[in-house]
């Protein structure tokens, strides 16, 4: 009986550790989310736009402004309008810019 109880306790402990490790992995920011938070969040909190309320990152505004693909967003990251900061390839790599774009399209619906 004692062996069975010890086995159950050890098994339960291992299950809890596995669940905790899994939760830690899913709680981590993606590279796109982390970069968005670092470079974009100050002007686009919650997908909004503190300078121009008609140009948020939400799907209805992106569609209205003909922004439909990750490439469209990367283009704006590189060559934005007059109020937005420009980020060249030295500041944000092409790979990271695409990850930001995919994060935006997948998050702000």
Structure write-up:
By secondary structure, the chain is mainly alpha-helical. It has one domain: Orthogonal Bundle (Cytochrome Bc1 Complex, Chain D, domain 2), CATH 1.10.760.10. Helix content is about 60%, strand content about 0%. The chain has 5 helices and no strands.
Short description:
The protein has 109 residues and is mainly alpha-helical. It is 60% helix and 0% strand. The protein has five helices and no strands.
Layout of SSEs?
Blueprint: H1 2-27, H2 31-40, H3 59-64, H4 70-78, H5 94-107
* SSE arrangement, N to C: HHHHH
Distance between the termini: 56 Å
Strand content: under 5%
CATH A-level architecture: Orthogonal Bundle
Mean pLDDT equals 84
> Which descriptor suits the 3D outline?
globular
Enumerate how many helices there are, as a single number. 5
Helix content: 55-70%
Largest sheet: none
Rg: 21 Å
Observed structural traits:
Cytochrome Bc1 Complex, Chain D, domain 2; mainly alpha; 109 residues; 5 helices
């Amino acid at each position: 009986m004692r062996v069975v109880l010890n086995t159950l306790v050890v098994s339960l402990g291992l299950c809890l550790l596995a669940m905790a490790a899994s939760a830690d992995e899913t709680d981590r920011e993606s590279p796109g989310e982390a970069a968005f938070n670092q470079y974009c969040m100050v002007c686009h909190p919650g997908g909004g736009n503190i300078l121009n309320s008609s140009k948020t990152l939400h799907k209805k505004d992106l569609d209205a402004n003909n922004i439909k693909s990750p490439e469209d967003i990367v283009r704006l990251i590189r060559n934005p309008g007059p109020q937005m900061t420009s980020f060249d390839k030295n500041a944000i790599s092409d790979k990271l810019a695409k990850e930001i774009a995919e994060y935006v399209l997948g998050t702000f619906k």
